[in-house]
Request: fold
Amino acid sequence: MDTIHACFKEKIGEVLLPGDVFSFRLPESGDGSIKSEKIICGPGLRRNGEEVRVCKSGILRHKQPNMYWIDSQQRRYVPAKGESVIGIVTTKSGDVFKVDVGGSEQASLSYLAFEGATKRNRPNVQVGDLVYGQFTIANKDMEPELVCIDSCGRANGMGVFGADGLLFKVSLGLVRRLLAPQSEIIKDLEKIFPFELVVGMNGRVWVKAKTVQQTLIVTNLLETSENMTSQQRQTLFKRVAEGSL
Amino acid sequence: MSTMAKDGAAKLSKNVLRMKFMQRGLDAELKKQLDEEEKRIISDEHWFLDLPELKAKENYIIEERSYAPCEDLVFGRMSFRGFNPEVEKLMLLMNTHQEEEEDDEDGNVSRMETDITDEEMAKRYESMVESMRKKFAKKRNRSTVTKSEEDVNCNVVEDQPKRAFLKPQD
Reply:
């Protein structure tokens, strides 16, 4: 049998379904001469003993040097450690806020996890506020935990936001397309007019422009660009920019 | 009598022989015997688990649950065309990490020579110009200086009338 990478590489770009298995024998390292290569399996791939199982349907992707994952389309969000999301504060109970992040369970957010917050100086967070935060704990079957500071205690754009503006939901695939470096949708969109955008990995997007009308235009463009080719999108955006729509 | 004395010496108990001051007079063989016995006593007293030896296998598959490291996703807050300058500053800050890494790979030598790029220097001096100008401006003119800050580089001359005594109208 070939190396681990070879059995992944022949499937790159192909559609895989849950239940597909990558099995391989470990390269024998009895004498220590052959060092087994490590691989990182991202979302959609799961380790099962000596093999890797596919658990989402989608296309197998690869990133140098050793990362493999399944590029899938879904609307249901599953919290993952380190991801930044938009949450809605639902309850204030003592030391923690409960935040709805769209997952199976509400996340908890400590009142101390804000920039400049101390025991005496509580952050001003009300029920219904939007927070942009990061998961520090996101395990299976456990309550996830959000924070609004980085490891140095700085907010770096996290925290309560969104005095006005509009919050809506899109698919997780579109969110990833928006967040991709040099995203084409964003590049096309920013030519139209000035606006602000907050994109959470949980599929929530918040938009604010100068007027309500402009905010709605951006919202509608984002929602429609989900199922469009880049050419269709560009012609639509051009028409909007000219003001004919 | 002499034999009896020898027997008496031999009958010194082991515990006595094990004492430190007795060690000097002992011969090598007896010493060895005592050591072995001591070892046996110690190992008998020690407990151990009767388990097969655990073999730790090297884990060569690492799981990652998030898409962010896979697809190099950027910072989630964005602002365009100066809608929210604070966020635009943050975007520069948060999204430079990836660009810098790419730069380092192909432009390592050029970066080593100049720690501060021309652009950074220009940006730094941009703010310097304003603060220095404020310093040298007279108190009266300061308010006008701050007003005209926005068009530092555009050479629009502000034609504000000079302050002068206004004659009261009748």
